[in-house]
Write a structure and sequence with these properties.
CATH architecture: 3-Layer(aba) Sandwich
Family: Belongs to the short-chain dehydrogenases/reductases (SDR) family.
Strand content: 5-15%
Structural class: alpha/beta
Distance between the termini: 28 Å
Protein name: SDR family oxidoreductase
Number of helices: 7
Radius of gyration: 17 Å
Strand order of the largest sheet: 3-2-1-4-5-6-7
Helix content: 40-55%
CATH superfamily: NAD(P)-binding Rossmann-like Domain
Shape: globular
Keywords: Oxidoreductase
Number of strands: 7
CATH topology: Rossmann fold
Number of domains: 1
Order of helices and strands: EHEHEHEHEHEHHE
Organism: Catenulispora subtropica
């Protein structure tokens, strides 16, 4: 159900964590993969080597997605080097938290630039090149459906914006056979949110399964949505959160 042979994917923020797992999984399914990074070139090259060791094809794209033109430029480089784009995975983002009173205008602008503006601009650019069967998949957050405590106003604001964007995309791009979906992770063991971190016990307690997930869990969901199995799924979010939002 997940055969992506002949497809081209772009994964933003693909040098580590969820993005790296997604890039590797899509390549395993047969896609040629471009992945963006900002400064972690060594990590990005490590992901590319894993893909190439399995006889896949990988392209590295250095892109600071806080720059307005960067997302569109990353799409254009993908198309130029890999011959097109069929799958866009909007993964780039960062976890931020703190009380409302301490959020600065600069922090607000940065989070919205990465988590919302870059998604919009990359999607706008990618949609110009996509045809029937195109996939736009954004990595959201369990905060889209539930905010269980204080200090997550900014994170919830940014990730919730993806819901409206995705529903609008589904309506506008559906007639062209392009789907738009979100994968909402719960607590996932990455360097941004390690399973042995300060808040890990609290986060585990919010899940029905009582544990953290792995980046591979998110990658499997993305691969499914990117493949033939996802052809009739659009305008919606899939929670991969261990029952966080139950």
């Amino acid at each position: 159900m997940n055969d992506l042979t002949g497809k081209v994917a772009l994964v933003t923020g693909g040098s580590r964590g969820i993005g790296a797992a997604v890039a590797i999984r899509l390549a395993e399914a047969g896609a040629a993969v471009a992945l963006t990074y900002v400064q972690a070139e060594e990590q990005a090259r490590g992901v590319a080597k894993q893909i190439e060791a399995a006889r896949g094809r990988a392209v590295l794209v250095q892109a600071d997605l806080t720059r307005p033109e960067a997302a569109a430029s990353a799409v254009e480089q993908t198309v130029r080097e890999l011959g097109g784009i069929d799958i866009l995975v909007n993964n780039a983002g960062f976890l931020t938290y703190g009380p409302l009173a301490e959020v600065t205008a600069e922090e607000l602008d940065r989070v919205l630039a990465v988590d919302v503006r870059s998604v919009f601009l990359a999607t706008q650019a990618a949609a110009r090149h996509m045809g029937e069967g195109g996939r736009i998949i954004s990595i959201g957050s369990c905060f889209n459906g539930r905010v269980p405590g204080e200090n997550f106003v900014l994170q919830a604001t940014a990730k919730s914006a993806l819901v409206g964007l995705t529903k609008g995309l589904a309506r506008e791009l559906g007639p062209r056979g392009i789907t738009a979906t979100i994968v909402d992770p719960g607590p996932i063991d990455t360097d941004m949110n390690p399973a042995d971190g300060d808040s890990a016990e609290f986060q585990r307690g919010l899940t029905a399964l009582g544990r953290y997930g792995e980046a591979a869990d998110i990658a499997e969901a993305v691969a499914y949505l990117a493949g033939p199995g996802g052809r009739y799924i659009t305008g919606t979010a899939i929670a991969v959160d261990g029952g966080y939002t139950v």
